[in-house]
Amino acid sequence: TLAGVRRTWSERARAQKRAYLYTPLGLSPHAPAAAKSGSQSSEPTTRFDVPITLRGQKIGGLVFHRKGTTPWPDTDRTLAVEVANQIGLALENTRLLEDAQRRAAQEQSLSELTAKLSQSLDPDTIMQTAVRELHQIPNVREVSVYITPPETDIVEDTAG
Question: Against a cut of 0.70, is the pTM above it?
Fold first, then answer.
């Protein structure tokens, strides 16, 4: 969904804040700036902004600065838009692959935990194994496992 695309890429942008700058000195990390998109006035300019979009949602941008003062030809503008579209698709494919790999790792961990838990018939051993294994989850400081008596529903006999 469009809201999902917007939310996912907003979260990634806040978490990763990646930007790069290429100058005659080479490629370097760059602090992302809130660039004004669409400097497409009829006056010649040395700057040309192209949004990187995905399903109609802006997820980034390209900013070009031209040598000299000649206006940007339509062929260069078209090429820049097509490149921005390809970057958007490549970034989304990478995100989807990362998500799939993360889910696969989670499923693998769950499968391994299930296998370890099924190796014993002793409730204490099962609970200790669960605590040990669950403690290995990233950012977990403590884990507790306990058993409580099942809650019973009280059914009144109204039949008399």
Answer: no
